[in-house]
Amino acid sequence: MDERVLRIIIDAFPQLLLFCVRYTIPITILSFALALTLAVVIALVQYADLKFWRKLCRFYIWIVRGTPLLVQLYLVFYGLPSIGVMIPAIPTAIIVLGLNEAAYMAETVRGALESVSRGQVEAGYCVGLSFWQIMRHVVLPQAFRTAFPALGNSLIGMLKETSLAATITVTEMFRKAQEINGRVYESLALYTEVALIYLLICTLLTWLQRLGEKKLNALGGEKR
Amino acid sequence: MKILEVHGVRKSFDGQEILKGIDLTVEKGDVVAILGPSGSGKTTFLRCVNFLERADAGTLTFDNRTHDLHAITKKEIAGIRQKTAFVFQSYNLFLNKTVLENVMLGLTTGRKIGRNEARERAVRALTRVGMADKLESYPIQLSGGQQQRVAIARGLALDPEIIYFDEPTSALDPELIGEVLNVMRRLAEEGMTMLIVTHEMEFARSVSNHVLFMEDGVIVEQGSSKEFFEHPKQQRTRDFINFILKVRN
Known about the structure:
The structure holds two protein chains of two kinds. Chain A is mainly alpha-helical. Chain A is flat, with a radius of gyration of 21 Å. By secondary structure, chain B is of the alpha/beta class. Chain B starts with a strand and ends with a helix. A six-stranded mixed sheet of chain B has the order 6-7-8-3-9-10, sandwiched between helices. In chain B, strands 2-1-4-5 form a four-stranded antiparallel sheet, with helices on one face. Chain B has nine helices and ten strands. The chains are: A mainly alpha, B alpha/beta.
């Protein structure tokens, strides 16, 4: 390999890693936390069959799943300021990514809730528990176990989606690579490098996901 | 002493009337067997009495207080459930909890009883059903008969005034039925008030003191179980008993 290209790759590496640790990973974690919280709320509202709220949730899921993430990012970052709503780039990325993924994860969580037999809920009522106590002690722990692999996939997906934040001026890892490339014109080398870093982190997450599944299955005997 | 009295229980699903006015009085210490062919409404009746289904009409008197089954509030239901227990056909143990936790949850979380006392009560209840050696097992590690005995202990630990059983042995392999019936037989001997939907005629005959025979949502015959099995009044009852006995042999 050309010595100059090798130099560029080596020089870029610590910078890319720095922006990964400083932006890509925190944005992923925060937006995932937001998505998971919202997903659980949306799923519970549907599970508990709260009439009005349920309709609202279906509406929300319909809108979010029916429009592209990139369009949603542009709409909030470039569109909303014209009606006076200005949100800085990084919060925009976190909020839009979180709200977007929540719609998908809500379906995952809802499916997991439904997979816990209704009989256990009835048994909970019969021993004097309230709906929320049953959720907390019986249904959610079991649903979490069922949903865990799918939630892991969501997390991996979100890590990669943070690269879209580059389009709304967030200098995360991918945009940093673009910036470096603007100076040295080595697209192939730099984008390969950044791709490999994403791959590395995703591999790590996949590994953690498997470990987590094993840990969860070790609790409470094997899964039915 | 009268423990439970229900009157005129009616329930429809999708316009089809499943219960057409059921009356029942249960005295303290009674063991009442609810018999009848499949689809007669036995299970629905039991579920209405414990509010797992909301009846369309009817009254329920418990602890000398009479409630309208259709209009009863969540709070009143919670109050009555403090003194009742329910055993399901499919056990419905909490699959993420150990045997001990299954029995303790209603005490610690539902009734705010301290962990130590709850544990003691749970172990005592599990001892009564012969499951004290499986405290740390999870439900899926147990046989159906063992799960059902844990489910009975879960009810017993609540110290109920009456226990409802909804076909407690119908989901069990034949060789496991005996252990569950034995536990129930012992409870009956100890004076526990029980309301049992069952297909086990021999068990009903030997353990219950009162029988309710239902068909198509109405009571065909009810009375002391001795009378019921030895001198059934209704032709339909005689046919049913003969049919069951014939199937058995």
